[in-house]
Write a structure and sequence with these properties.
The protein is of the alpha+beta class and about 325 residues long. The protein has four helices and 16 strands. The strands form five sheets. Strands 4, 5, 6, 7, 13, 14, 15 and 16 form an eight-stranded antiparallel beta sheet that branches. The chain has a two-stranded antiparallel ribbon with strand order 1-2. Strands 3-12 form a two-stranded parallel ribbon. A hairpin with a 3-residue loop joins strand 4 and strand 5.
């Protein structure tokens, strides 16, 4: 299973996607109902399976140069909730051209959908007014948080250890140095990250301690452990900003960095649950319980139960 955000023009070169790693479950989640949750605050999108956090997307940034310098765009707007079946493309491992879909065995069943207010899923005691130099159009501008480059920061009730983005130890000093030069000083990289302004890309006194040997002899004289430590710090700063631990293609497809963490999700015992998800500009949360069985469709103001055919759940 995988959680992605899509944005930009479609079709066309403006269509962009940021995706999670591929997760595996410790059970057959097509048997019985399970809960898929999106907690959407003004600052992040948090994805859960059966109540446990599996992935996050940071929204405290310019999402993509496609939107210029617009902070959090396009996820600072209202969106519809869609529960749908989408088959085809190159998503995960199929389907293939010769796959056969049998009905009613191949069905997507939804037992319920629950929408919860933002204030019920965040730790209100931690909510604060913050600032960021990259934020050109921060909002909201309220009595609690006003001023240049200011925004409200919300924190969910649960903590998450998450993942780290580490350097690939199989890469040479020169290859690691080249990646650090790109991330910290290349103009194309700065368009999205503005990472050069971060302390991790500073001089030997404030961040990138091995900068001198990287530029002096392409890393030949760099202490290996010091270089790996610098790479870990820069890679993780980039990962924290844009949720990516991959290469953009500047290295010819080699794995300069490795996403480290548990990519297995745990199924709840009993197989029946509920969910949460929140919108950015308003204050709400969406819970969806899904399975492979049901045929009712009910709509209320805050709850919805429906049935559809197999595929992915889009929120």
């Amino acid at each position: 299973m995988q959680s992605n955000i899509h944005f930009g023009a479609d079709p066309g070169a403006g269509h962009n996607m940021v995706k999670s790693p591929k997760f595996t479950a410790d059970c057959d989640y097509t048997e019985g109902y399970h809960t898929w949750t999106l907690d959407w605050t003004p600052n992040e999108m948090v994805y859960k399976f059966d109540g446990d956090v599996m992935w996050k997307h940071n929204l405290n940034r310019v999402i993509h140069p496609f939107y210029g310098t617009e902070w959090q765009a396009p996820f600072d707007e209202y969106f519809y909730v869609i529960l749908n079946v989408a088959i085809g493309g190159n998503f995960l491992d199929g389907p293939d051209e010769d796959d056969v879909w049998n009905y009613p065995e191949a069905e997507f069943w939804i037992k319920s959908v629950k929408i919860t207010p933002l204030e019920d899923i965040v730790d209100n005691s931690k909510t604060e007014c913050k600032s960021d130099a990259r934020c050109e159009n921060c909002r909201p501008n309220t009595d609690q948080c006003t001023g240049d480059k200011k925004f409200m920061q919300y924190y969910l009730l649960e903590d998450w250890e998450g993942f780290t983005c580490e350097p690939n130890n199989d890469r040479s000093n020169t290859e690691i140095c080249n990646t650090l030069k790109y991330l910290c000083h290349d103009g194309q990289a700065q368009n999205e990250l503005n990472l050069g302004e971060q302390s991790v890309c500073g001089d030997s006194q404030t961040g990138w301690a091995t900068m001198g040997c990287c530029y002096g002899d392409n890393g030949a004289s760099c202490d290996r452990n010091a270089l790996l430590a610098d790479a870990s710090e820069v890679y993780n700063m980039r990962y924290d900003i844009i949720d990516r631990c991959d290469n953009w293609g500047w290295d010819g497809g080699s794995n300069d960095m490795v996403l480290t963490g548990d990519k297995t999700v745990k199924c709840a015992t009993g197989g029946t649950t509920t969910t949460t998800a929140t919108s950015t500009t308003t204050t709400s949360t969406i819970s969806t319980t899904t399975s492979t069985t049901t045929t009712t469709t009910t709509t209320k103001t805050t709850e919805m139960t429906s049935t559809t055919t197999p595929g992915k759940l889009g929120l």
